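Propose amino acids for all 126 sites.
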């Protein structure tokens, strides 16, 4: 399983990359492998205020429906519109073209896991 070191992670399997006050949010390859083939994704609309650790959307796969939790607090400024027609992009490129939404953060994120910590979590070592 690939876990890029430049990202922050949540225990709920979201990743975040903060650049110039904007956080790009997605779900990890561990999440996509657990979910199976993703067939639908719902993300917050541009302008929506998201709150740290609150549900901000959902991902539907052939196995289940799972909430997406915001790893940051702020206003959604962009969504990945290509996912509407091609949700399977999340499976093929969860850390790249499969990003979900971008948030102009109003507070620096806290409590994020490093790549090493996230790897240990997903391997069952806490």
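Proposal:
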């Amino acid at each position: 399983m690939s876990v890029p070191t430049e990202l922050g992670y949540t225990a709920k399997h979201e990743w975040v990359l903060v650049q110039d006050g904007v956080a790009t949010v997605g779900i990890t390859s561990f999440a996509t492998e657990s979910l199976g083939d993703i067939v639908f994704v719902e993300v917050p609309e541009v302008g929506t205020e998201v709150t740290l650790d609150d549900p901000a959307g959902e991902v539907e796969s052939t196995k289940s429906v799972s909430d997406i939790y915001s790893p940051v607090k702020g206003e959604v400024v962009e969504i990945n519109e290509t996912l509407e027609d091609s949700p399977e992009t999340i499976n093929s490129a969860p850390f790249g073209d499969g990003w979900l939404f971008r948030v102009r953060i109003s507070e620096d994120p806290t409590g994020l896991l490093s790549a090493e910590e996230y790897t240990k979590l997903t391997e069952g070592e806490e």
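Helices lie at 29-35, 82-85, 89-92, 115-122. The two ends are 18 Å apart (CA to CA).
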